[in-house]
Hints:
The chain has helices spanning 3-7, 25-34, 79-83, 98-114, 139-148, 164-175, 182-188, 202-217, and strands spanning 9-18, 47-57, 60-69, 88-94, 121-127, 152-155. It is α/β, with parallel strands linked by helices. Helix 6 packs across helix 7.
Amino acid sequence: MSDSEDDTEDVQLKFVVLGDGSSGKTSLITRYTQDQFGRNYEQTVGLDFFLKRIRLTNKKNVSLKIWDIGGQTLGGNMLDKYVFGAQGVLLVYDVTNHHSFENLEEWYEIVKSMAHDSQPHYALVANKCDLEHLRTVTKDKHMTFATKNKLQSHYISAKTGDSVDLCFKMLAADILGIKLTRAETEQAHRIVTAEIANSANSEAVKIASVRRKQQKSSFCSLQ
Length: 223
Ligand SMILES: Nc1nc2c(ncn2[C@@H]2O[C@H](COP(=O)(O)OP(=O)(O)OP(=O)(O)O)[C@@H](O)[C@H]2O)c(=O)[nH]1
Ligand SMILES: [Mg+2]
């Protein structure tokens, strides 16, 4: 085993994902853990569990236990049990549904009142940013809520995957008191690729993209 492997530390974190029904919580987690997205809505009844192991930095591996809480849980008597022991809370709303944003205040206040010993770290997550033309929640409103309550702020799309990795990674880093380097945050930015249909150059584009990837991960040896 090399020195660098010896030094690596493993930690576990519990994240809960909250917000109104249909805001896209399950879609966000499914995109993050399985890199998949489905158009059909299947309501989460109660809760679901997901697990993802990430390398946060050279020296830190994190196992994320992600609890996907059904939107219908708000006001029920199970929520406090679900939230118990969470270090991270993602408050998710749908940018095209103003109610889902208004209700976050309630989600937030309830969870805050449940955490007695120590407060979890919170992230305000604006989902469905691919539907910019249907947006009803302004970025100003989002930022006011995030700033007032000192929440991390993220604009994402579970559909395209935009900023999904970054959102989880930054919350984990915040909890562990780690300041990610620019390179580490850039790695988490998802590059959304679009296929060019019937293009005569498509093969060339593919080759160019493979070459770029190879360049990034290759070593340079001076002789
Ligand atoms: N366009 C778009 N649609 C999305 C996005 N995320 C989720 N959806 C759609 O929104 C609907 C609801 O998504 P879910 O992930 O099931 O919502 P949920 O928050 O888990 O809902 P509950 O389980 O009832 O709490 C589904 O039809 C998804 O395909 C997104 O980023 N963009
Ligand atoms: Mg769900």
